[in-house]
Amino acid sequence: MTHHIIDFKDIFFQYPDGTEALKGVSFRIIHGESVGLVGANGAGKSTLLLQMNGYMLPSSGVINIGGVELTKKTRQDIRKKVGVVFQNPDDQLFMPTVFDDVAFGPLNLGMSNERVTDRVNSALQTIGCLDLATKPPHHLSAGKKRAVSIATVLAMEPDILAMDEPSSNLDPKSRRDLIGLLKEFKHTKIIASHDLDLILEVCERCLVIKNGMIVADGRVSGILTNQLLLEENHLELPLSLQKNRIH
Amino acid sequence: MTHHIIDFKDIFFQYPDGTEALKGVSFRIIHGESVGLVGANGAGKSTLLLQMNGYMLPSSGVINIGGVELTKKTRQDIRKKVGVVFQNPDDQLFMPTVFDDVAFGPLNLGMSNERVTDRVNSALQTIGCLDLATKPPHHLSAGKKRAVSIATVLAMEPDILAMDEPSSNLDPKSRRDLIGLLKEFKHTKIIASHDLDLILEVCERCLVIKNGMIVADGRVSGILTNQLLLEENHLELPLSLQKNRIH
Amino acid sequence: MHMSDALLSPAVGATVWAGTLGTIAYCSKKIKENLDEKMIPMMGVIGAFIFAAQMLNFTIPGTGSSGHLGGGMILAILLGPHAAFIVMASVLTIQALFFADGGLLALGCNIWNLGFYPCFIGYPLIYKPIVQKGMSSKKILMASLLAVFVGLQLGAFSVVLETLLSGRSELPFGTFVLLMQPIHLAIGVVEGFITAGVINFVKAARPEILKSITDLRPLSPDIKVKKIVLTFLIIAMITGGIVSWFASSNPDGLEWSIERVYGKTELPEHETGIAMLLKTLQERTAFLPDYTFKKKEDLKEQKTSDSEANAWPNVETGTSVSGILGSVMMVSFIVLIGFGIKIIRKKPIPQREHPV
Amino acid sequence: MNFDKEYFNLGVLDTLSYKNTLVHRLDPRTKVITTFAFIVTVVSFPKYEIAGLIPFLLFPVVIFALGDIPVWFILKKVLVVSVFAVFIGILNPLFDTHIKYHFLTFPVSGGWVSFFSILLKFFLTMCSALLLISTTSFPGICHALRKLGVPEIFISQLLFLYRYIFVLMEETLRMVRAKDLRSFGKKGQGISIFINLVGTLFVKTIERAERIYHAMLSRGFTGTIHFVLKEGFGKKDFVFMSVTGITLFIFRAYDIVGLIGRLAERMFN
Ligand SMILES: Nc1ncnc2c1ncn2[C@@H]1O[C@H](COP(=O)(O)OP(=O)(O)OP(=O)(O)O)[C@@H](O)[C@H]1O
Ligand SMILES: Nc1ncnc2c1ncn2[C@@H]1O[C@H](COP(=O)(O)OP(=O)(O)OP(=O)(O)O)[C@@H](O)[C@H]1O
Ligand SMILES: [Mg+2]
Ligand SMILES: [Mg+2]
């Protein structure tokens, strides 16, 4: 199966104001892999994730998702395969109720009302939020908002899941629940985060990005223990690997 | 010196919509102490910090800051003593340049232009951002924004520093820098955060808040290792105290 | 200045609603024809921005009173007239519902007064021509001030017309105009400054943002001045025509025609259906055998005495006493009903026990 | 502070609208239509009408009770809200001084009568608007309007607005708070600070809109927003509408207060 493969070849990207955010990024993620994406503030993580569903097309280079080259023509189809969860759930939950929000994607896929309802219910069930269906998003707590924003993506049944800083603003328990959820999702996934401990638990492989370039790519256990590499990238050892410092 | 003492006596607070966010909070923080404030999402941390400078006055109970009871009359003075840094630096930086932003508070204190300039420069120096003075805040990285928002408060030379989730959205290095900065600030400080490792490093004492009540108060080393207490409060052991789990 | 339900007659309220709905439908069609899909979230969030910004107050220098952003002109400048009108309509709808700013019948007037003039007069006829050649800060300021001024004056004048045509207020036309227009002059100056200030702020801080939104804007260039003026005139004439027709055929406007529908004034001849039923019921139960629909006479009395002011003292005190007595009883009765329902509701519904 | 209050009130009304009572369960269309019918009937009374308006108080009272709506909260809102009607109405006694009634022995001028009529209408119409929103969720009202034929684009704007008002107001609240804390009681600081705040807010808003657009695209958005619409119009709606309609008619057509008054007089004599 070539279905869930992500292939970036020498991708450059420039924002309209001239900022060069990606400067020749290449990597290949195969079916079922879970990949962490780490790097300093402003390194280009979010920009990279946004390339993945063709919202912004690269200035040069070729992106291939599941065997299809990403172009203006194909991006509608590719968006059905790639589910992206943004950093801030408030940006992602734009419909007036949880149900409408989760149903938004499936409806756009042109499904019948019953099938949509089924999908929504099962997505909400997965994240344990079925009872929230009629609530408006602003009545949810931060942790629940995050969970629902994941459900909106799950309901599309994507082959590939891309998440931007999923653990920010969660209390430790909600974060732990999130980690459980991510571990259960068996498809290809790529997660950008400053929470290296989360990456350590959820991912097998890790990409390090710096100034719009991939500067390291390998197994998580190797990369997140490489002190020198980490320091160069404004990172540090995952806290759970640091020596205990109780005063 | 009774200067930098914070004393909460049986504080209740109700939001206008009827939510009881604080239900009898009492504690006393003495001069120079650094105190962590932890608890689940929605436990009441932010509400408690906002009491501290009289932005919202308690429904009942007495707050005493540096020997002065907090009332409508005294709160303007108390605000000069207590500097509060909010969770999101973007909410705090509203002026067009970094300099203007840091100067905003001192100018309102009615200082002369030269004194204001001195204050601003020294505050920016402390956080290592003197070169950013003429930049607009939206051109700063997340870490720098956080640092500048701390400078806006430092420029007022507060006796007491209160911070709400200071490490959110920072890359590990910026977070580390922040920890250094906080450790250097020798006055009384109180920090609300989900980042228990930060609390562990910066604070000596820790308050646990749950449903608007303080349910534990003691040395950080005792509280943040009490598994049962932590679990009850949607918390967990600081990551640096957890067992390493490399796959 | 929000128009209010209580000052409106149904005729005026409905006429203006018709104009407003028509404009909404027209704008929706225009937007749909030229839609850049990005416009949908952009409009929504900018609407929320106007809402949030409206809640911020500032002190007007030298007066101590506070002002705030109205928003119509800023929306028109940013989004173009059609999208701006829709956004303004949605902002005002939310205000009417959540803040009861004016009420639902008056909402039609409010959308018209605060949305139509800035979007379709102030912006295309004044702001745009001035800024067209070069956007210096000064030009933006001048254009904003003028455009906002004209929009608000027209809006205020509409409030006057709507109120007077409804016939609920006794204010003479001249006094009312002298009251409203100067107030809105002051408001206009403040709002003009803010509008220009915000546009200039964004222009300085993030020019690319301003550019990207205006690029998105559907069909900003092809609003034809002549067409607008013409449409406006036609609408004004129709509105004026309908309203004055109502007003002239009966001083009380639509209530006259509603009375016809409800059959009050000509009740004895036109009783049908429920009314008939009730009447028979009344007679049967001899509830008040000699009860005649007194109201009818009262009404006529009012009419005649409106012209002869001195004919008033002939109103018997009896009527007003029974009126007051009736009112008091009615109110107590209603309150009792309220409490009754409350008590019944509070009773726990007995749970049906399941057979084991 | 003022801003806080407004925001909280908004939140309270919104929370109320998600209750689960008989009134809340009615189809939103039913409530939108009856509310409009109520308002039009109320304002259709002529200038000098007071007694005829009194029976209409029954509607808000019943809804308050059935919908379990906090009376004081709504009343307070009605009182502080939009003073325009009151402001214009209070001028009536100045201009209309014909003696219209004798209250016991005091003469009452037409201006006062029409002013009180305005006040009553004001109260009734404001109550009904607030009761509509506190017994019907806003998305519900929007779907009702959609089904009643209001253009799609307008509806989608209302829904977006509803969603993001809460987000942006909270953001604004935090900015204002930050500003206040460094202002030391210097209120407002006038226009230039205000413009900075509003400008900053605007820039953030646009950036947010961009992100929302990304989110929409990544879920297959192509220009139209679809909904799973549930049919909710049932027997209870039919009953509610008929009862309301008939009652409105009776109250409009018959002088209920006069009837009761005379009946009472007769009983006392
Ligand atoms: N809309 C934009 N216009 C111009 N430049 C931008 C824009 N968004 C991001 N950039 C720039 O592109 C670079 C990469 O930004 P990006 O948001 O991808 O970083 P990031 O790795 O996600 O950072 P963070 O950890 O803070 O989220 C940065 O230099 C940033 O300033
Ligand atoms: N503006 C408000 N109006 C009404 N209730 C509020 C408001 N702000 C907070 N609350 C409620 O008060 C309680 C305490 O909220 P608070 O923001 O203090 O929690 P917190 O501990 O800071 O949570 P978090 O970790 O998510 O920041 C919660 O139940 C919350 O829902
Ligand atoms: Mg990012
Ligand atoms: Mg908080």
Helix proportion of chain C:
over 70%
Structural class, from secondary structure content of chain A?
Answer: alpha/beta
The chain-level mean pLDDT of chain C equals 73
CATH superfamily of chain A: P-loop containing nucleotide triphosphate hydrolases
Unreliable sequence segments of chain C:
247-272, 281-318, 350-356
The CATH class name of chain C reads: Mainly Alpha
Coarse morphology of chain A: globular
Which chain pair has the greatest contact?
A: C-D, 127 and 135 residues
> Oligomeric status of the shown chains?
heterotetramer
Biggest pleated sheet of chain A = 6 strands, mixed
Short description:
The complex is a heterotetramer, with two copies of chain A (247 residues), one copy of chain C (356 residues) and one copy of chain D (269 residues). Chain A has 247 residues and is of the alpha/beta class.
Provide the descriptors you would attach to this structure in a database record.
heterotetramer, C: 356 residues, mainly alpha, Arp2/3 complex 21 kDa subunit ARPC3, two-stranded antiparallel sheet, D: 269 residues, 2 strands, binds adenosine-5'-triphosphate, binds magnesium ion
List the helices and strands and how they pair.
The complex is a heterotetramer, with 2 copies of chain A (247 residues), 1 copy of chain C (356 residues) and 1 copy of chain D (269 residues).
Chain A: E1 6-14, E2 20-29, E3 34-38, H1 45-51, E4 60-65, E5 68-69, H2 75-81, E6 82-85, H3 89-92, H4 98-108, H5 113-126, H6 142-154, E7 160-164, H7 172-184, E8 188-192, H8 196-202, E9 205-210, E10 213-219, H9 220-223, H10 227-232
Parallel strand pairs in A: 3-8, 3-9, 6-7, 7-8
Antiparallel strand pairs in A: 1-2, 1-4, 4-5, 9-10
Chain C: H1 10-33, H2 39-55, E1 58-59, E2 66-67, H3 72-79, H4 81-98, H5 104-131, H6 137-166, H7 173-205, H8 207-216, H9 225-249, H10 254-262, H11 267-270, H12 273-285, H13 294-307, H14 317-346
Helix pairs in contact in C: 1-4, 1-5, 1-9, 2-4, 3-4, 3-5, 4-5, 5-6, 6-7, 7-8
Chain D: H1 2-16, H2 22-25, H3 28-43, H4 58-67, H5 71-80, H6 84-89, H7 92-95, E1 99-103, E2 106-109, H8 110-135, H9 138-147, H10 152-181, H11 190-217, H12 235-253, H13 256-268
Antiparallel strand pairs in D: 1-2
Bound molecules: adenosine-5'-triphosphate (2 copies) and magnesium ion (MG) (2 copies).
